[in-house]
Every structure is written in structure tokens, then in C-alpha cells.
Amino acid sequence: MRNLNTRLIVIAIVIALAAWIDFSQELIVYNPFDDTVLFRRDVSPRLGLDLRGGLQVLLEADLPAETEITSDQMETARLILENRTNALGVSESVMQVAGLRRIVGEFPGVTNPDDVMATLGQTGLLEFVDFGYEPMPEGTRVQTDFGLDPVSQPTSTPEPAATETPAEDAPVVYHTVMTGTELTDVAVGTGNLNEAVVNFVLSNEGKDIFAEYTTTHVGQYLGIVLDKVVISAPSVNEPITEGSGTISGNFTLESANSLVIQLRYGSLPIPFKLVESRVVGPTLGQDSLQKSLVAGLVGIIVVFLFMGIFYRLPGVLADLSIIVYALVTFAIFKNFHFTLTLAGVAGFLLSTGAALDANILIFERMKEELRAGRNLRTAVDLGFNRAWSSIRDSNLATIITSLILFWFGSTFGATIVKGFALTLALGVIISLFTALFVTRSLLQVVINAIKPGTENPKWFGI
């Protein structure tokens, strides 16, 4: 009984938390003493391209057909492109490798496709630039000597000669000490005062370059420039000769992590060209969604009636557990910002019906035990225990199938297949929780309330 009370408390907490997420657009927790915000999280639903409309693009490696492109290069390029578009606020974008040379990008709700296309077309050149004693604000566009004729490249930050007066509109060209290709590892760390810092490790060649520069430029500013735009300009506090160092400043954890992403994924490993782009309207998807939801609602009502009529009391309890299943599943979608597509909705509705499979196996075994003359409590225990092997094997097979479908969708850019597989697998896992934990707990509560000698087999479908 003590164990049952614990399970009921856990179920109540799960239901309350799931309902809070499901019926909220944003979760906010306030400090009860001074009304400051302790926790805030956006849990508004993320709708996919087919439900919300937006932009879809197809990119292809801009290299000769005979050039070998590795899967690691394609995955790195996908990460870089995804990070770039997320920086635009397109946080629901989906970038997927399609085949050996192509990447498919989907950007739901995009109102200005030109910004996305411009961002995808960036070269992603990361440079460490000598600013001398001049601190350069973030966001400033600068001109560097990287890529210029080596004969004409200056060896340090250019300074005007004493006998010459440069033209006022003449651009200042800053010297690139090294590029991001010399970085081997970048990570967020913690400084001496528990503040966020960025730690980095250099290649052997980068170690020598950095050691020489920092030894002779203590007190000067070394800018970190991405596509000729300053993203950070830390000062050199001491020589860095070990091939690793720390970038410190007024970083928050978010800004430090953002800098790490830019340092780690600053440049594309291979060039890409735009093959196709199209703007998708949401009208067809919304119409299909409404029809799917109506069909799903009708199906759920029929299933609920079937369970209640055929299995009586256990069937009603199973219906209640399915409601818990739906609340928990949708809460997970919202909390972890899963993008909900039309295929995902179909997978969710399918898994909702399949969630009753385990209950049906359990109830049938329970009815067999009751027909064999077992008392109610024993029949329930044996029903759950003896049905477990079948439940385990069937659900494991479904999860393996979902993993195969998810791999297929990720490899070949089939977003619809990927969304269906994800929601189906997640639904199977949660259905096991509701069948083996929620339904069993509710059934045990009912059995404990039934007095010995008043058991009615008709209540259990016999």
C-alpha cells in the first residue's frame, strides 16, 4: 500500500506538470519572496513547414562530380548552416543531409527569404586579426589582408608614416594573424571568479604563430572576425605559448556558447550552390491537419467505447490512462521544441491507438485467470506478469522499426518519414509507462476498494 501511494503521487505530479505545459505558451516560476523570475521557458508549439508555411531550399556541393566528399564533411556543413540560420531567429529550421552531396533546408514561418538565402551563402571565413591598441566594437565590419597578394600584405597593423597624411576615406587594412583552420578544440569553461570563459586549443602550426604574436603584442587587441565582422576583440594579457588559452570578458553562458559555435563552425568545409528554393503556403497543410484531427477524434471515441463495453471497468481505467498518455506526449513535444509536422500528427494519432495494445494483452490474460478460478487480486497480478513478454517483444520491434525509419529519413532527407518515426517511437515508450504504471496503479486502487466476496466478474468483461 505504501508503494501504491508513492506511485499515485508520481502519477499526480506527472499529470499536473504535463497539463501545465500543455495549456501554457510560456512557463514562468517566480520567487515567492521578491517576485523575481526564477525560471522561464517558451513552450509554444513548433509547427513544421507543411502546417505553417515558409521556405524550402536545396543546396548541393559546388565541386566537380569526381571530387570525393566525406559524410563527416557533409555533417559539419549541416551543423554550420543550421547554426547560421538559428542566429537569424529561425529556431525551428531543419537542415538535413540528403544523399551524398545535397542538403535540404526547411524554414517554417520565414517572412523574409532573402535574409536566409544571404546567410546560407556566407563564406564563413574566421580570422584572428591584429587590431593593435585600438579596441574594436563587436559588429564592426573591417577589411583584412587575408587573401591579398603576399607581396603587398603588411606584417602588422598598418600605421601611417609620419611624413604622409592618408586620405580620410582610405580604408584601414588590418593584418590577419591566422585563420580558424588552426583551431582544434573550443569549449565553454569557468574562470577563477566562476565567470564564463572560452577555452581553445591550437594545432602545432597555430601554436607557433600564436606564441610569436602574443609574446610581442601584450596589451594589444586580437580581434576574432567572422566574414569580416568583429564578433569579439579580447586583449592579450600575457604570452600564450602552450598552444591553448582562454578568452575572457563579460560573457554570459549563452554568449560564451554562441562564441564557441562561431569559432568551432565558422567556415564551411566545402562550398555549396543553391539548386532550388520555393515558398510553401500553409493552406493545404492546415486543411489536412483539421481533417486528420477530426478523423483521430472519431477513432479515439470509437476505441474508448470499445474498451468500455468489451472490458468494462478495466477498459474505463485504460481510457483514463490513454488521456494521461496524450497529455504527457504533447507536453514532451512542446517542452523539447519538437517540430510538429503533418506526418508527426499522424504518428501521434497512430501511437495513441497502439498505446492500448498493451492494455488489451493484459486484460485478456487477466480474463483467462479469472475463468480459471483465480481471485481478482491474483488474476490481476498474473495478467500483468504473464503479458509482459509479449508486450516487451512487440514494442521492441516497433521501436527498432522506428529507428530504421528515422535513419532512412535522416540519410535521404525524407523529413516526413523522420517525423513519423520520431513520434511513433516516443509514443511507444510513453504507452509502456501508462500501461504498466498508470493503468496498473488505478486498477490496484479499485481492487483495494472492493470488499472480499463482492467481486463481480461482469465488471471485468466476463
Describe the 3D structure.
With 462 residues, the chain is an alpha+beta fold. Helices cover 50% and strands 19% of the residues. It has 11 helices and 16 strands. It has a 5-stranded mixed sheet with strand order 8-9-7-12-13. It has a 4-stranded antiparallel sheet with strand order 5-6-4-15. A 3-stranded antiparallel sheet has the order 10-11-14. Helix 1 packs across helix 11, helix 7 crosses helix 8 and helix 8 packs parallel to helix 11. The longest helix is centred in the last third of the chain and has 53 residues. The two termini are 27 Å apart. 31% of the residues are buried.
Q: What fraction of the residues are assigned to beta strands by DSSP?
A: 15-25%
The order of strands across the largest sheet is 8-9-7-12-13
Radius of gyration: 30 Å
Report how far apart the termini are.
27 Å
What is the β-strand count?
16
Order of helical and strand elements: HEEEHEHEEHEEEEEHEEEHEHEHHHH
